[in-house]
Write a structure and sequence with these properties.
The protein contains twelve helices and ten strands. It is α+β, with helices and mostly antiparallel strands and 373 residues long. The chain has two domains: 134 residues, no CATH class; 222 residues, Rhomboid-like (Rhomboid-like fold, Up-down Bundle). The strands form two sheets. A seven-stranded antiparallel beta sheet has the order 1-2-3-7-6-5-4. It has a three-stranded antiparallel beta sheet with strand order 8-9-10.
Length: 373
């Protein structure tokens, strides 16, 4: 079912004698059509400029495509009488959305006779739907093999780090995420001079969790066991934390991180309260962010490299695979092959899931209020 990106109403399809199959919103009277149909009615130079600007990456993304639900690019186009019209274009399935009176403002070309005019209305609808389905399948296949735009993203993917695709636009600057990343980086880099002694003194030891008056719950979050450990955690914090902070707000975001980190540490302690190996890293809190992000943005996707090919995965599948990998690592811990704090990760992720369930109504109501204000 196609839905209106403005008022979320189900669109109705209608066969236009001069264009073909278009989708109309019975509530706000907007309309959607493919780029191929638009070329039949609007001057070629205008349509070409519209598509080139949509592919340029210079313009923001506000609404979701009524067909594939990806973020559409909002493109400015000079219409008749020199006025600027903003059209929403989906670069994935080639859909263009028109608010009321926007389509009429574009410079038209005389209607050309078409071979489809000899077909019945049912045949025309079937042909248009078949072409749309083929376009969506081609777009999905291309998405599987399309690499990211920047070389450094490819380098990270080769190392096994997922790359965020179709980034969700931010309404506010993620100041708390940036500050938290800066503090973690500063403390961890300062400790690199004598890392082993610092970790032994300020890491969280389950058998001695009350030492330094319990401050090791905080210091262990800020410290990391090496440069790659630090870079990996900062990457996940910045990539998935900015959108999480944007929808939750600064206070709730901090509450999520702090609660996930503390619960993760407590889970780690409860699993093996006699352990004497110091535990460091922000993974517990970041696991809470990751779990919340995957539940809050189910249409987002990430890219990974698999057998030298790029594959895009929905974040929900990525999260499920991550949970399975943590469970698998837990068996390795029981066998004594690793000392990674897997249960801290799982405890933090559980907090992220519960936090999403707790705040989903309030967050959705706040987002709707901002859209209508």
């Amino acid at each position: 079912m196609f839905t209106c990106p403005h008022c979320k109403t189900a669109l109705t399809k209608r066969m236009s004698p001069s264009l073909g199959l278009v989708w109309l919103c019975p509530s706000c009277h907007g309309r959607a059509m493919t780029l191929e149909l638009l070329r039949k009615a609007v001057q070629q130079t205008v349509v070409n400029r519209l598509w080139q600007r949509a592919r340029s990456g210079q313009y923001g993304k506000v609404r979701r495509c009524p067909a594939c639900h990806r973020q559409m690019t909002e493109v400015p186009i000079i219409a008749t009488e020199g006025k600027t019209t903003y059209l929403d274009v989906c670069t994935g399935c080639h859909f263009v959305w028109f608010d009321p009176r926007e389509f009429g403002a574009l410079p038209k070309i005389p209607a050309q006779p078409s071979e489809q005019e000899t077909l019945s209305q049912e045949a025309k609808e079937a042909l248009a739907l078949g072409r749309l389905e083929a376009r969506k399948q081609e777009s999905a296949a291309a998405a599987i093999l399309t690499p990211p735009d920047h070389w450094w993203q490819s380098a990270l993917a080769i190392l096994g780090i997922p790359i965020e695709y179709n980034e969700t636009p931010l309404r506010n600057r993620p100041i708390v995420t940036w500050l938290l990343a800066a503090v973690i980086a500063g403390v961890s880099l300062a400790a690199m001079g004598d890392l082993q002694a610092t970790v032994e003194n300020w890491g969280l030891i389950p058998a001695e969790f009350g030492r330094h008056f319990g401050l090791t719950f905080l210091t262990s979050f800020l410290l990391h066991g090496g440069l790659f450990h630090l870079i990996g955690n900062l990457y996940f914090l910045i990539v998935f934390g900015d959108n999480t902070e944007d929808v939750l707000g600064k206070r709730r975001f901090l509450l999520l991180v702090a609660t996930a980190a503390i619960v993760g540490d407590i889970t780690h302690i409860l699993v093996d309260p006699r352990a004497t190996v110091p535990c460091v890293g922000a993974s517990g809190g970041i696991s809470g962010i990751l779990a919340y992000y995957c539940l809050r943005f189910p249409t987002a996707s990430v890219g990974i490299v698999w057998w030298f090919r790029w594959i895009r995965l929905p974040v929900g599948i990525m999260f499920a695979l991550w949970v399975l990998s943590q469970i698998f690592d837990a068996f390795w811990i029981s066998a004594g092959f690793t000392d990674v704090a897997v249960f801290a990760h799982l405890g933090g992720a559980a907090v992220g899931v519960l936090f999403w369930w707790w705040t989903r109504r309030a967050v959705s109501a706040g987002a709707l209020q901002q859209e209508t204000s």
